[in-house]
Write a sequence for this structure.
């Protein structure tokens, strides 16, 4: 079966699955909501119709009926472009969650019938850490003896289709509409330093503005569009510290911090649990918090029902829960 044929098969299978397995007590057609989500992702009725193996007229009719049922305008169409209304964007967010849940239900059902087998190629960013990647891999392989696993630690953003992977881990938005993202965990980031560094300061750190005059160890996430922002209740403060060192690996950042080279932002679940317990790393501005860093498992839509991917996702979530308990 070709990739396009598999894409169409899985889209239709998902729609039929929802119709057959769910009782819809809703004021609108759930199929139409899923069709709407594909139109938003493709930004084209024609492309969405091709993906869903439906006539364009059917897609258009379904969308019109959905708008009528909801009593709102979801899309604005003219001869040159298709745009989504503000409320349509919010509804699209819900439709994506519904799609992910449907994929999860189907994968759960299929997984109960078939033991995962075959090879899974996975790309995990180095910032996630060797310890986490190795524990997930070992758990997955021990649990599924008919599986094979190829994990690559990568420095740069990779694309699951173009770069030949079944699964990649990432933090940013989806790179195209043919991908599915499932959140694995959220890293609770916090500011920290070594007791030696803090002890050498002329005065205690009690306000965010003080950090702008101190050397900062950047783990690679706080440059470009993502800013270093701390919050307390409803207050938000954007920091502009002097970057003394930057790397894309938390283990390297931790060593810099332990050596007293500056203040850094670290996740306590997978990197500095022991150091916090021992006191070799201490929180800075504990009353202020950083935004969480969401990590997703991303894979092509046509692999949505893969038992291998579902099994790996289960192992990935299980290990982070264990790490959080340890912390």
């Amino acid at each position: 079966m070709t990739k396009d044929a598999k894409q169409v098969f899985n889209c239709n299978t998902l729609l039929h699955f929802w119709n057959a397995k769910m009782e819809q007590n809703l004021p609108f057609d759930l199929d139409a909501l899923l069709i709407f989500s594909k139109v938003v992702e493709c930004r084209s009725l024609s492309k969405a119709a091709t993906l869903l193996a439906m006539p364009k007229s059917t897609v258009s009719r379904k969308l019109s009926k959905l708008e009528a049922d909801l009593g709102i305008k979801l899309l604005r169409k003219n001869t040159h472009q298709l745009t989504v209304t503000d409320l349509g964007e919010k509804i699209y967010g819900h439709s994506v969650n519904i799609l992910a849940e449907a994929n999860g239900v189907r994968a759960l059902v299929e997984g109960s019938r078939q033991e995962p087998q075959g090879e899974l190629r996975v790309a995990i960013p180095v910032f996630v850490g060797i310890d986490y990647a190795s524990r997930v891999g070992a758990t997955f392989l021990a649990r599924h003896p008919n599986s094979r696993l190829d994990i690559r630690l990568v420095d740069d953003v990779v694309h699951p289709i173009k770069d030949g992977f079944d699964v990649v881990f990432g933090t940013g938005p989806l790179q195209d509409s043919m991908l599915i993202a499932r959140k694995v965990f959220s890293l609770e980031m916090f500011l920290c330093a070594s007791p030696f560094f803090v002890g050498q300061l002329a005065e205690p750190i009690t306000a965010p503005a003080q950090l702008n005059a101190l050397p900062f160890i950047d783990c690679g996430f706080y440059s470009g569009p993502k800013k270093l922002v701390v919050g307390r209740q409803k207050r938000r403060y954007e920091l502009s510290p002097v970057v003394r060192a930057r790397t894309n690996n938390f283990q390297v950042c931790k060593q810099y911090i332990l050596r007293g080279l500056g203040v850094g932002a670290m996740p306590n679940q997978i990197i500095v649990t022991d150091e916090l317990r021992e006191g070799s790393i201490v929180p800075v501005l504990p009353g202020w918090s950083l935004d969480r860093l969401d990590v997703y498992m991303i894979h092509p839509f046509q692999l949505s029902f893969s038992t291998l991917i579902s099994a790996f996702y289960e192992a990935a979530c299980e290990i982070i829960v264990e790490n959080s308990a340890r912390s």
User: Anything to note?
Assistant: Residues 215 and 242 are 5 Å apart (CA to CA). The longest helix spans residues 86-113.
